[in-house]
Write the structure tokens for this entry.
Amino acid sequence: MKPITACPKRVAEITLASLLLVSLLPLLPANATEYYADATYQGSSDGSKLLPFRSISEVLKSDTLKAGDTLVLASGFYGELKIIDKKNKDFVTIRAGEGQTPQFSRIRVQSSENWKLQGIEVSPAFDGSYDTSPLLRISNGSQNISIDNSKFWSAENIEAWTFVDWKSKASTGIEADGREITIRDNLIRNVRSGIETDIDNGVIEGNIIENFSGDGILGLGDYTKYKNNTIKNCFKVDDNDYDGFRSWSVGADGEVGTGQVIGGEFSGNRIIYREYPDQPDPCSLQGIAMFDGSFVDWRIENNIIVTNNWHGISVYGGKNVLILHNTVFNPEADNKTWIEAEKHKNGTPPDEVFILNNIAPRVLGHNPPSVIAAGNVTTHFAYGMFEEIESNNFKLKNTAISPVDGGVTRAYWSTITSKDMPQLPKIDIAGNERPLGRGFDAGAYEMTQTRSTISSYLPK
């Protein structure tokens, strides 16, 4: 029997992999420790599971937590959490223990870096300290902060709230400015505005914002992604404008509308002005309201907008903006709401804006070659087009002739412009592959059920 020898190439691969692993070891946190805290514990403590810390503020003052460490929280009320001037070389995590519900009245993160907060609950109702300041504020140049799987609310129940209560008790859920901040999979309820941010390179994803009396999400930073959020149930309590998503630019002169907001992505979101027909005092909700550009290099795709306002998706002062495969619907007046590409308020026309393969009552901004609108289904809505509008289910029925396979094809594109066709989304709002038939379906959903015999639709 021949001796078993290693293949020279394999030996080289293993050696290279080993060298890479060794080179990475110094980057990993050394001696990372898991500590514990319990707000109800009364004895002496060392942060172990048997002798947990009681005061998080004391732990932070003592600088016990180092890069890579985790502080695991038991159920209980911990007061206000303040993380100020704490810059770590690697993430420090503060999280709920399994099955635990740690509670805070408010959280402040200032001038800090590399912190993760997970599985916590934040409300002034825990100590009765109602005011309108944000439940979580991240500020003063903080960086690499993430908040995940947590709950924020001004009050648990708002059924008896008057306009005065909304104005005096409703806090903004999360307010954040800084860089590389992630806000993911949180529940934000009964608030003034849901999430207000001026974040560069941020991620706002998978959050549910319900029952609000201001804006769902405000996004002012560059290169930030807003993905798969649900924004629903807006209450009118004053004469302010109400927006599902709002953005504006600020220039070097400090004036609104004289700068640029660059590289944003708004995709897979659901904006629903009211979930139930009997909701009291619904606001007039503008869906995606981007009025004070310039907005440069944006993608707005695979969103569902249910609104009672004119502005379904409105971009003023867009440059290289793609508005693709959105479904916009107004249950109160199906010919009223639009998708719109409009000039900047200084008179500069939009440039390289493509409005393709959407379903909406109206599409405005037909101004070739600077604006190209094609593949859109803009007829008045037949309620048989969607599976179940009453439950905000906008999946296409297989009898919906116009939207199915009705998106722009490359052959058709070449007949309307010499510009390169933009990359269309490869999946729909539910994650299904696009296209699944002879062409792209218009709107946020690609139909996946068995298709009827449908003639292709190409708008003229």
Notes: The chain is about 10% helix and 35% strand. Confidence is low (pLDDT under 50) at residues 1-26, 453-460.
